[in-house]
Amino acid sequence: MSGKLSSYQSLFGGKAPDLSNKGVDIIYLDPYSLKAPDGHVFKLYKGKRLDDLVNDIKENGIIQPLIIRRTDGGDYILSGNNRNNAAKIAGFKEVPCIIKEDISDEQARWLVISSNLYQRSFHDLSYSERIAVIYEVYEIAKVNNYVMRTFNSDDDEKEKQSASEIVSGVYDLSPRNVQRYYKLSNLIEKLLFLLDEGIINFTVAVDLAYLTEVQQGFVADILKEKQIKISTETSKELRKNRTGLEYDDIYKMLVKEKKKKDNKKTTKSKFYKLPMTIVEKFFDEDNQDDVDVVIEHALEEYFKTLNN
Q1: How far, in Å, CA of 39 to CA of 116, rounded?
Q2: Tell me, what's the pLDDT at 175?
């Protein structure tokens, strides 16, 4: 895991809350009474991974208790959403839990992220999950009075480390890439889906994040309708000319790119490579023009004999 709980000190300046089950009471709660935290960004396991977890829990039970934050509004899962979901599927009526009551909202958010990244590395997450993680930790850094440097700012003067530098140390990213992930939190859901599915790439997504939500909606709808693969050249053009862009303007830019690609497909030349043994056998010099002329003439003669 890149973002370790030891990085907690970088964000809060103190010791991380103890999440071990040593010396603490374990209580058993109804899995259906437990809630995911507000704004939970991590996707539940699906497919084989979920099936394996369900089978393991049926066979061995839940070995690692869930970490629960108890509030006036209910019991929220800080660690163990997938175990709780698998326990429901397995038919369990109760799950082992450790209750935490003395932590702040920011600490709770950080612990949700950290516990999930114990299971998977940052780069194993989908793009939408990575974006949400960076946004959350960046906001935690800001809340704790770290200086936020604006995107693409040249101002290096700061009293403390910038939020981007704090987060870059946690997740092994450059400060610039941290800022790019943070910018991607402006993407609408439709474009986040396209990014996760590989229909648009990371650089294109960053450019599109500068558009308004309405403009982004136009882009997503046109890409889907016309089955267009948007290039970085076009995304940069959209970003550069974003002020006042309307649907028709965006449509023309995207369809123009599709036409270019379609033309390239229809005019693309096909090549056949002759073995060097044949070239050396029939040609004294490696002159491409002579080779082309001879081959064309030979083929004409060959197909004449076939038709006779």
Answers
A1: 14
A2: 84
Greater pLDDT, 23 or 302: 302
Q: Is 111 exposed, middle or buried (0-12, 13-18, 19+ CB in 10 A)?
A: buried
| Contacts for 237 with CB less than 8 Å, ≥ 6 apart | 253
CB 208 within 8 A of CB 235: yes
* Helix ranges restricted to H, 144-275: 163-171, 175-183, 189-196, 202-208, 213-226, 232-240, 247-267
State the CB neighbour count (10 A cutoff) for residue 226: 12
Any idea where the domains of the chain sit in the sequence?
Answer: 18-102, 187-267, 276-307
**What CATH code is assigned to 18-102?**
3.90.1530.10
pLDDT of residue 241: 93
Residue 181 CA to residue 133 CA, distance in Å, equals: 9
Joined tokens for residue 171:
């997740």
Q: Is 199 exposed, middle or buried (0-12, 13-18, 19+ CB in 10 A)?
A: middle
Cα dihedral: 254, 260, 263, 267 (round 10): -150
Copy the structure tokens of residue 1: 């895991």
CA distance 91 to 30: 11
pLDDT tens profile 39-82:
677 778 888 889 999 999 999 999 989 989 988 888 999 888 88
What stretches of the chain show up as alpha helix (H) in DSSP? 8-12, 47-60, 81-90, 105-119, 127-143, 163-171, 175-183, 189-196, 202-208, 213-226, 232-240, 247-267, 276-282, 288-307
Lowest model confidence (mean pLDDT) among 123-137, 177-191, 195-209: 123-137
| DSSP-derived secondary structure letter, 43 | P
